[in-house]
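Task: complex structure prediction.
Instruction: return structure tokens for all chains below.
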Amino acid sequence: MDANKFRIKNLIFSRINRKLTLLVIVALLAPALGIYLFYYILTSSFPSGLFSEEVALIKTTAILIIVLISIVNAGVIGFFVTRSISKPIRDLHKATLELEKGNYDVKLDIKTDDEISELGNAFNLTTEALSRLENERKEIDTAKTEFLSITSHELRSPMTPMKAQLQMLQEGYFGKLNKKQKESLEIITRNSDRLDNIIVDFLEISRIEAARLKFNFKEIDISQIIDETTSFMEGFAKEKNIKLVVNVDKIPKIEVDPDRLSQVLRNLISNAIKFSEENKKIEIDAKLKREHILFSVRDYGCGLSSENQIRIFEPFYQVESSTRRKHGGTGLGLAICRGIVEAQKGKIWVESKEGKGSKFYFTIPLEPIRKIEPIKVLFSSKKLIERKICEEFKTILGPLGNSEFYELKSKNALGKEDIFEYIDSLTDLHIIPHEKGLNFKYKIGGIFGEEKTIINKNNDTTYCTPEEEVLGRN
Amino acid sequence: MQKIILIVDDEEDVRESVRTILTANGYTVETAVDGDDCLQKVQQIKPDLILLDIMMPGKPVSEIIKQIQDIKIAFMSVVRISDARKRGLCSQPNIVDFFQKPFNVSDLVDRVEFILNG
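Output:
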């Protein structure tokens, strides 16, 4: 900070101070001038020896005139102060709020010709710079999506002759194969299939990110889609003797893309099968909840830790690096599910407890969303969670929430335990009441995908289930 | 008499793979490398079926198919059928099938057999 800025000289000669000084001088001078004029007129126009009543009358009138001048004066000063100081500051404030919302086109037009207008100009330059950066960011983002799409297509074309030749070899087009050759070809085929699956998933992600995901809506019975999907998945479940239990409420026919819905369900059920042990069951539910249909897929497998619950929807995130080898899959399934669900303005989340199993939820709207918007699927899950936490801070703590959030973020203390500790310190210091603290914890827990029972122990007053909570936040 | 199939693809490896598969299954196979080549070969050999890649450099596929109205055409493509539809490629009545690349060999053989022999 430059100490010179606070020197007396600068304070006196700053243009805004000059203006204010001028106003004060005028404010003092005007009534003084009035009084002076009055006495001047009084003494010059009326010779002595006048009746004292007349003098009293004139004096009263004079005082009234002076009061009147003062009022007009105050009004004039008020007008000038408003025009040259308050209004520009209000404009600046409004513009800053606009900027926070992400409107980089906001422009200030302050013509006061003082420090405030300088501030306004600086603000305009800053928004211009921000707008430039934002455009650059968007361009890079589009380039990334384009690159992903083009490379995926380019990667896919060599797969065609490769797979064709492999299959010809395997099907004996070029003569009989011995056991070793067959085994070798199987390994090549398995891995080329895996590579192809990854490429297909990449293409799907590039579609989601570029809002090119296609939905073909049909009015259809939800239970029919669920039945078809589960009977398709039963083939895989049988290998581990897993039972698929379907429980669908009465739901009116809605417009939905059956293939996309089935894609999400297949993905969740296939994950549930992968992470279940033999002879367990998997429950698939669907019910009507306000403006949504809520689906859930529950398994009784190994469950997920809190850290894994946040990150499970990130691309290529697998709970342990060994699970990929053990369970196969591209690691993009859940990221794609999130993309599909969010493209329909739905929510997808997981509740889980280690060792007890996981329950994946997702919602679809009763009215289909026809205007598809781009969704960031790659590398954004952590940021999304941070944003949700920041929003929660702002709701509970008001404007202070923002700075508190960044304080914690700068300390790298945005883990669930860290935030809980922070909330405890707030309630201990009576900064927020105990009830509010519990509610805060509950909301944060929800963001981290915590099971409702953990927090419900202490908080049974205003309790709503996590699913209602998530729906409500929509 | 052996049925004649014309394979049109800009990638040699794809052309040769499909040629091997179909020749082994008793068809006469000719190949073309692009749209103009395709139209020329159609005049010369009068194929029974054209397997046409929908993404090739040069003449757009929509123009090629306009000039072939009386020969069955099956598309081969890396992009999905929905993308092809969006480009208005699937409206002609002589377009009989769509092979998503990478295709399955036995599936290709079965479907070609069905198209040509019903």
